[in-house]
Amino acid sequence: MKVNFLVDEDKHVEVLLEGEEHSLPNVLKDILLESDDVEFAAYVIDHPLVGSPKLIIKTKRKKARETLKNALATLQERLKEFETALKKEKKK
Asked: Please, are residues 29 and 14 in contact by the beta-carbon 8 Å criterion?
């Protein structure tokens, strides 16, 4: 995956995720929208067959880049919890 910041302002970022499809930007969008500081979070794909997703984040007070990093950390924590639950289920 290649990450390219198309817009990189304090409270607004737009990130092109080359080599990705819907999965990663969709889950990040959902995590971002859980934050009270996120004013807007969405992703778009210009062309469904050849386009790359563009993740758009606008925040109220905090820096948008930091908010994205926090969302990624939350995703990592949730994946670890899921992995732990799968391991426990496997032992049964």
From this structure: no
